[in-house]
Amino acid sequence: MTERTLIKNLAAREDGAVTVSGWVETIRDQKKVQFVILRDESGSLQLVRPRPEPDAETGKSDDIAESISALTLGSFISVSGELKHDERVKLGGIEVKIGTLDVVGKALPENPIAEDSSIDKRLDWRFLDLRRPEQALVFRIQTTFEHALRTYWVEHDFIELHTPKLMASASESKAELFEIEYFEGKAYLSQSPQFFKQMAQPAGFGKIFEIGPAFRADPSFTSRHATEFTSVDAEISWIDSHEDVMKLHEELLVAGFAAVKAKHGAEIEALFGIELTVPSTPFPRIPLAEAKQIVADRGYVVPRADADMDPEGERQISAYAKETYGHEFVFLTDYASSIRPFYHMRHEGDEGLTNSYDLIFNGTEISTGAQREHRVDVLIENAKDKGLDPEELDFYIDFFRYGVPSHGGFGMGLSRVLMLMLHLPSIRETTYLFRGPNRLLP
Ligand code: AMO
Predict the structure, then answer these.
(1) What is the pLDDT of residues 321-339, one digit of tens each?
(2) Where does the secretion signal sit in this chain (predicted)?
(3) What interface predicted TM-score (ipTM) does this complex get?
């Protein structure tokens, strides 16, 4: 391992010998002094070297000066030298005087992307795009957020699962299913861990979670859809209704946001200009039908009365929740059974509605949750009602034939949460490597 000090730790060190490593951000190759701004994963630093008098015969400075002159932007270098605190240095009041310089990975001179390059071009060169400090921050935030969720789950006795991503059938809409060759037959890429997270309930696991990939053959090019995304899922037994799932969901988000704010609040403010709010509980809850009426009263009519909220409807109801409750989150509840999957439990005494919800955050849906139908005869009827062949779903329906507790859960898109948390325009900015209808590289 290269012995190196992270740039962020230099300020607290005393003057003296250090080794720093990173990539070249800028070079000022002056006659008398050479300056290099070095960046590593923790910050940036000024490197300096007075240029020795040129050789009388060759007119050249020494080897180090020559290699500084030959440096290209983006090259990875390792430098040993003398750390010096000096208030006059604008960049953090410290600099390192170059003693030795090792060019470990030389970059081609032309950077294929610039700050104003289109998102598509930036994604073509994602590894260079990710060198921007705000991009690295997105993934530090993601790490902290996931860690906080896991900590919550572990402290509350959840079991972590890794369900298979190769499936024999669809778990969500058949229209968004990727079919692949599987030896002599066909298989499908998992759209959601839905069936297998539910299976943990008759298995007696009680409470489970998974953070894993989900695939949707969705041909759209919106800012919120990917063909592969990371789904955050939880499923719990012994619930009375979807209200219990919403409570869990709130607590998890509070834990996640509190951890992100505590660790990255200042950086988020500096790099994204956002003061992160840890949501208060309970989040507002509005039945979908009422939400549509509220939106209509604001002058926007959701195109189809029997359909889900559309993106503009989501923005409008979110604006309403912000104005009325001062809240960035809002649960829309009691979706019509006509627009929900067969496995959502329907209202006792009103078959037309389900014990389900969508969670809207800053104008966009981030999650769907529900109480599941666990009574096998009702489940079969609901499947038939949706035009599904219960025989095709027999492996799933078997889960309910040998005893199962009441249960429910939710699925939440990780990149969407981050996009909306940081007010970024697209999940392309908050997905490490975005996958869409026309993007499989890099
Ligand atoms: P749903 O299909 O609503 O529900 O998906 C849950 C959440 O996953 C995210 N998501 C997506 N993110 C990026 N690109 C996509 N193409 C995409 N599709 C969905 C969204 C969405 O809210 N099985 C149920 C969940 C459950 O009931 O437990 C399900 O998958 O943030």
Answers:
(1) 999 999 999 999 999 999 9
(2) none
(3) 0.99
